[in-house]
Design a protein that fits this description.
- This protein is of the alpha+beta class and 477 residues long.
- The chain has 2 domains: 239 residues, no CATH class; 217 residues, 3-Layer(aba) Sandwich (Rossmann fold).
- Helix content is 26%, strand content 29%.
- The chain has 11 helices and 25 strands.
- The strands form 6 sheets. Strands 1, 2, 4, 7, 9, 12 and 13 form a 7-stranded antiparallel β-sheet that branches. It has a 6-stranded antiparallel β-sheet with strand order 6-5-8-3-10-11, with no helix packed on it. Strands 15-14-16-19-20-24 form a 6-stranded mixed β-sheet, with helices on both faces.
- The structure holds calcium ion (4 copies).
- One calcium ion binds next to loops.
- One calcium ion (CA) binds next to loops.
């Protein structure tokens, strides 16, 4: 205590007698940042206004200031300093995020002698610069406040899709809404996202604040805290931080109704003469299980041109949305190593062109079935989140079929249709056949039936690449 008192006294003396402004008799301020402590933050709407102007010039007809999720109750605040992270999860209903606002501020406790100077400078303005110097010397100002957005709590601390640093001096002790433009970031509606704030250094006298509401005011998310840089989190039950997110619709948002849509294509070739018949079998199987024929485009032979397939996929995109189930089926000639498929009349659709078209779809439940030579190679172009790929053979294997009336299709298709036709494939007994279940039903039978090496391949990224434990159910029994 004695040392601290002595130190303060010495510094006061030094400042009093060696401060250049004091010696010059001038009350001029140095820009120490802290000068602006009591000013309001710069206009938080600036980002938004410029963004709107850009959109008007681009003649896009949407309103970016449409508020989507928010929690505005302010019953208190958490202190942010020393590396502790606070987070608030939320669930957007729109597919594009445009803007984030959080209600934040700062707090700092001045030592008594600086308080004294603050009072004195009202009568003696020349003391102002000295007061600021004292503040910068004695306040343990925290690092910039980092505001980030994450799509998973497992992604911290490195994989934020948005991050902004806010300076201590840019905030005020009266907590207010701070706005960040998000540059139209694509999100998955109805999935949880996380707003994370963190600052290092500072102390219990000098810290950032984030307002919160009590009694669980926001039901689609929760406040959380991490004391280990985001490695582990605990929920602050019944608390929600103050936030607002703004968004735009993509038109692909789930509408609460699960509709089923399909594009089914079979193109016969010299190499594979049962393609058209295979496509018809799949079509009939889906219709017999309640899929509406009006929801299916069946493209046989000369209808299965590149233009025809891409137009059908575009039609399907216009129909489906985020909570629908979609199916793309192709039977025909495949290119060596599975770089694409051959359509009518020998038109080539590459794996990446097909991926582009499928990528337009809003559905998060996409089944793709290929009964064609080398189809296993398509996985390298099409293997993405929300997709389950059923491929009739490896990338270096042919696929066989039989025109015998008993079979009259590719072997893989034959056993898929058989699997969809009964209860045998429903291994988890939920009265649905999933893409995964019907694959495992057909896989071994196809290999046994073929007279050449043919090993069907499954690619399962449903519901996502990192988590494929759920089944993509698409045919009810
Ligand atoms: Ca829907
Ligand atoms: Ca769509
Ligand atoms: Ca099942
Ligand atoms: Ca799965």
């Amino acid at each position: 205590m004695e040392n601290r008192g002595l130190k303060i006294f010495v510094v006061l003396l030094m400042l009093l007698f060696f401060n250049p402004y004091f010696l010059m008799g001038e009350g001029k301020q140095k820009n120490l940042g802290l000068n602006r402590l009591n000013q309001h933050p710069s206009n938080p709407k600036n980002d938004v206004l410029s963004h709107t102007q850009v959109d008007i010039l681009g003649e896009k007809a949407y309103f970016i200031n449409e508020i989507d999720q928010y929690q505005e109750d302010d019953d208190g605040y958490e202190q942010i300093y020393g590396g502790i992270c606070y987070a608030q999860s939320f669930t957007p209903s729109k597919g594009i995020l445009t803007q984030l606002e959080i209600k934040i501020g700062i707090e700092y406790d001045l030592p008594w002698f600086i308080e004294l100077f603050v009072h004195l400078e009202k009568w003696f303005p020349f003391l102002q610069s000295m007061t600021e110097t004292l503040k910068s010397y004695f306040l343990n100002e925290p690092s910039d406040l980092v505001v980030s957005l994450y799509s998973s709590e497992n992604q911290l601390p490195s994989e934020s899709f948005f991050s902004k640093e806010i300076k201590f001096a840019d905030l005020s002790t009266s907590r207010s809404w701070y706005s960040c433009s998000l540059n139209r970031h694509d999100v998955i509606s109805n999935q949880k996202y996380f707003i994370v704030v963190q600052a290092y250094n500072g102390d219990k006298d000098t810290y950032y604040t984030w307002s919160f509401g009590s009694n669980d005011p926001y039901r689609l998310g929760t406040a959380m805290v991490s004391v280990d840089d985001g490695a582990t989190w605990s929920h602050l039950s019944s608390t929600d931080f103050c936030f607002r997110v703004y968004g735009e619709s993509t038109g692909e948002e789930p509408d609460g109704t699960v509709n089923h849509w399909a594009v089914i294509c079979g193109v016969d070739s010299d190499q594979y003469t049962v393609a058209q018949a295979s496509a018809v079998k799949i079509y009939n199987s889906l219709c017999s299980h309640g899929w509406y024929s009006s929801h299916i485009k069946l493209l046989k032979n000369e209808m299965g041109t590149k233009k025809g397939v891409l137009e059908a996929l575009s039609w399907m995109d216009g129909q489906e949305d985020g909570d629908d189930v979609v199916l793309f089926y192709f039977c025909g000639h495949g290119e060596g190593r599975g770089m694409g498929i051959y359509l009518y009349p020998s038109e080539f659709l590459s794996g990446w062109e097909l991926d582009d078209a499928i990528g337009e779809l809003g559905s998060h439940s996409i089944v793709m079935i290929f009964d064609s030579c080398y189809s296993g190679g398509l996985q390298q172009y099409l293997g993405k989140n929300y997709r389950v790929l059923l491929m009739s053979s490896q990338h270096d294997e042919s696929s066989q079929g039989d025109s015998d009336p008993q079979i009259d299709s590719g072997y893989f298709t034959y056993y898929l249709v058989m699997g969809l036709g009964g209860t045998m494939a429903d291994t988890n007994n939920d009265h649905w056949i999933s893409a995964e279940e019907v694959f495992y039903y057909a896989e071994h039978k196809t290999s046994m039936k073929a007279t050449i090496p043919q090993h069907p391949q499954l690619y399962d990224a449903y519901p996502s690449i990192g988590n494929n434990h759920e089944e993509l159910s698409f045919v009810p029994l």
